[in-house]
Amino acid sequence: MTSSVHHDEVIELGEGFMADPYALYRLLRRDRPVAKARLPQGLRIWLVSRYDDVRAALVDPRLAKDSAALVATFDRHTTAGANRTRFGAELSAHMLNSDPPDHTRLRKLVNRGFTSRAIARLRPQIEAVAAELVAEVAARSAAGEVDLIDSYAYPLPMTMICEILGVPGEQRDAFRGWSNTVLSTAPIDERAAAAAAMAQFLTALVADKRARPGEDLLSAAVAISEDADQLSQNEAVSMAFLLLVAGHETTVNLIGNGMLALLRNPEQLAQLRADPSLLPGAVEEFLRLDGPVNLATMRFTTEPVTIAGTDIPAGELVLLALASANRDPAHYPDPDELDVHRDTTNLAFGHGIHHCLGAPLARLEGEIAFRTLLDRFPTMALAGEPDELTWRNSTLMRGLTRLPVRLVSGK
């Protein structure tokens, strides 16, 4: 890593960036808060890294998200020779890829299922799933180290979102594999195959919900009615994709990244054990320090936009670095340090109309996940060195591939 970033330099966001984006972000916030960059797939983008700029850009209507208009923009900004094959179009007609009024209509159809009150009613169910999982973890830990991602961080939110949406259990592991691949920087043919498999599964699921609706949220969202606001077939499949993927991906990484932060800061872990009332605030600190989403999903400029003194022409792709904004020293003192007493807000779930619909669910699942784990295991340590851990091959999601630990059960 260089000690400075030159004005005209195009930043390559490769494997080193995915392993540790924060070293680059420190330089960018200081030298080039709006920088030209290239993604591993060859896509040229503008990268925004300071808190105030990211927060303002998240609500700037000149930075649009309409998926149809993005296609032509992608083609113009893909490096010559890169594979331009399109995939996943049948999964893209959801609210995260839309602007008002379509966004307003799509979000309204599922919003009632994710209000704070609706999510609060799920607490007993989440606690029961967490208790069952830690019992299984305890049994595995007797034989040595345990991977907390596979055994706990993944199955907890995946079980819950599948229960909320009414997804049968036998396909959950397959869905995890498809999700990891689609959100990665894997070769285009691998991502296309995963997207096709996911689309086939979700198309069948939506058809089943419309033919035999249950009491679940997905049945309600895709119900065929005379209401002009109902979802089209493509929108229904895309909505199922978004809710399933976002409904587990964020919490998996919140739990994994948060536990790693605690294990690397034993004095903070001890303080949290001593005072469990700190947990809700600690979850916010985990989200700030090493949140589940590195770069917000793609936006494009509908007209020239000036950010931090840098002119971005119309028709340019823009990525907003949530992870960088959450460590901006202009907004957070000692931003690279974990502090479970810190009382502040963050941009981990975005801001404005695209603020994560499932944020209340992720926060509640995170709080219960950490409380249950710390209650059951009074002694916990990394199995290996922190620098031996590997991170997911994704510029969107920030998460560990594995978190091997040694545990001692207290019950």
Q: Would you kindly provide a written description of the structure presented here, covering whatever features stand out?
A:
The protein has 411 residues and is α+β, with helices and mostly antiparallel strands. The protein has one domain: Cytochrome P450 (Cytochrome p450, Orthogonal Bundle), CATH 1.10.630. It is 49% helix and 9% strand. It has helices at residues 15-19, 21-31, 51-58, 67-76, 102-111, 116-120, 123-141, 148-153, 155-165, 172-182, 188-211, 217-222, 233-263, 266-274, 279-290, 322-325, 359-376; strands at 11-12, 34-38, 44-48, 63-64, 146-147, 299-301, 305-307, 310-312, 317-320, 379-382, 404-408. The strands form three sheets. The protein has a six-stranded mixed beta sheet. The chain is globular and about 60 Å long. The termini are far apart. The model is unreliable at 81-85 (pLDDT under 50).
